[in-house]
Structures are given as C-alpha cells and as structure tokens.
Amino acid sequence: MSRLTADSLEGIWAGVPLPWDEEYQFEEDVYARDIQRTIAAGVHGIYTTGSTGEFYALEFQEFCQMVDIEVGLCGPAGMPLQIGCNADNTAKVIRMLEYVASKPEVDAAQVVVPYWMELNDRELVQYFQDLHNACPDLPLVQYNGPRAKRFLHGDDYLRILEVAPNLIGVKYTTADVHFGHLQEDIRQTPQLSYFVGEGLLVSAMQLGARGCYSSLVLTNPDFMLEMYELAQTGRWNEAVTMQQRAAQFFVESEQFIAERGEGDCDPVYDKGLAVAAGYFLEHQRCRPPYIGWSDETVAALRTWLEERYPELIYREQ
After folding, report:
1. In 3D, which of 11, 18, 68 has the Cα closest to residue 41?
2. Contacts of 27 (CB under 8 A, 6+ apart)
3. Alpha carbons 201 and 223: distance in angstroms, whole number
C-alpha cells in the first residue's frame, strides 16, 4: 500500500476509541473486534490516538500493541490508516513516528503541536523540521485544535511546508469558531487536505474541504457516509439537510448530558455515544482521571436516541 498524499486524503475517517477492562488495562481482543467492525462498515479510513483515542493515557508499549493490531487488520483489508503520534515533547513524538514509519501499512501519522505551553514561531517551525528530519517519507497530518494553545492558519502552514514538505493535511477542529478563516486558509494552502467536523462538513466541502475525522460515524456509519456521498456528488440541498440534523444532534445531546451532570470531554462523550448507539459493545469506561458515563446515563441516552435520532442507532446487518 502506498502512503497517503494530499490528493488521496479524503472522505469519512473513523477515530476508534480504546477499550479498557475493569483494571483499566488495554483490551486488545476487544479493540481488534472494534477495528474489524469499522473496516466492515466501509469507512474511507481509520485513525487512532487523537483525543477520542486517549493518546495521553497510553504507555509506549501499549502504543506499539495498538499499532500492531491496526497494521495486522487494516493492511490486509486495504483500509487506509493514520496513527496519532501525539505527546508533549518532540522526542516522544519522534519515538512514535519512527515506530509507525517502519510499518508500510501505516499511510500517515497525525500530530499535535505540543500543548502545555504555547510555541512561538521559531519553536513551531523547528518542531516540524525535527519531525520531518526524523521521518521524511512519512506523511503528516496536523491535528489543529485549541488545546495546543495556538490555532494554526495558512501563514503558519506556508512556513511549516518549507521545512516539512511531508505535511499533507489538517484536522481543522472547532471550524465553527474559525469558519471565517477556513476559506482563506484553504485558499492559501491548496496543497493541503482540510478536514472539519460533522456539523460543518457540507458547508466546508463547498469551500474545498476534503472530509471529516468523525465520532458520529461510530453511531450508525451509514449516516455519515451518506452525507459525504451527497456532498461529493453535488446534491447540496440533501447534504445540507443532513448536516443540519447532525449539528442539531450535537447541541441537543450535549444539553442532555449536561443535565445529567456527567462529563463531556472527547473520549467520554464519543465512547459513551458509540456504546449507547449499539455500535461498540464494550464498556464506556475511560482511563483516569477522566470518568466515563454511568451505565444509567448510557441507557437513558439509548432511549433518547431511539426517540429523537433513530437514524443514529446502529442496526446489525
């Protein structure tokens, strides 16, 4: 399998959560089952260890175990694969990049900008130059989010591309807040593939965005795949109607969870939602200090989904 390029990086990619047993140990067999289900769902790609994938919670040995499972399943299936190589310093990131670069089944790596203290321009450019120098042939996708303290834009990417030409794409989170910048960023850097969230996917595709790293795909994958197909084929009115439905769902579901007084950080919300929708069958627990939803909340959300959003319930084929 050839590595990804900006031209081939597109579609609906699923970020698969990590399952933990009652002792908060990585459940490899359960994870493999979840990967197999996601491959069978026909998504356009699988990526790991972003926020939903609890990258911050993994020891390096566990990271390698996770990569090996992905490689062993996605490679033979011809499923495009991105591995999140994220940490709070350059050396840790490079250690992960070097491991995944040795796996031809890995098509790209997704990286965050170190997030504890904000990087200045000099540090930002040096960071990406160091990553490129370590693994020049491994394509990179930058996970652009507010937790890194600094949200990157087109001018930043032009500087980065001078030292890291292996940068092929951007996960452009919170596009609703930065939507006014998105069009200009795409215009400045047409050589990059931009991905946005579900609630603005269709609108962003009209500006030139290429796809979505999706948590909603882990409810009923057909919903997101249909929305993307409608937009890809220019059936904009139908696609926008589905986008509005997705955006409405996120607003209402967040209100539902807030009223129950439980957490809503990415892994807690995404994993609990996938279990409530019936897509994943394991428990919704997250590694401490974050706490997954209670069984009662998952059951209540399931009932709420059946009443309000039945199209997001997973139906076994």
Report:
1. 11
2. 19, 20, 21, 282
3. 13
172: CATH: 3.20.20.70
| Tally of structural domains, the chain | 1
Cβ partners under 8 Å of residue 155, min gap 6: 188
Q: Is the peptide bond before 76 cis (omega within 30 degrees of 0)?
A: no
pLDDT, tens digit, for every residue of 27-61?
A: 999 999 999 999 999 999 999 999 999 999 999 99
Single pTM value for the model: 0.95
Provide the angle, in degrees to the nearest 10, between the axes of the packed helices 175-188 and 154-163.
50
- Are the C-beta atoms of 135 and 162 separated by less than 8 Å? no
Residue 99: inside a domain, yes or no?
Answer: yes
Cα separation of 14 and 230, whole Å? Answer: 18
282 vs 86, 97, 251, 297, CA distance in Å? 25, 29, 26, 15
* Residue 290 falls inside a structural domain: no
**Which residue segment(s) compose the domain that 180 sits in?**
11-235
Residue 109, beta-bridge partner list: 83, 140
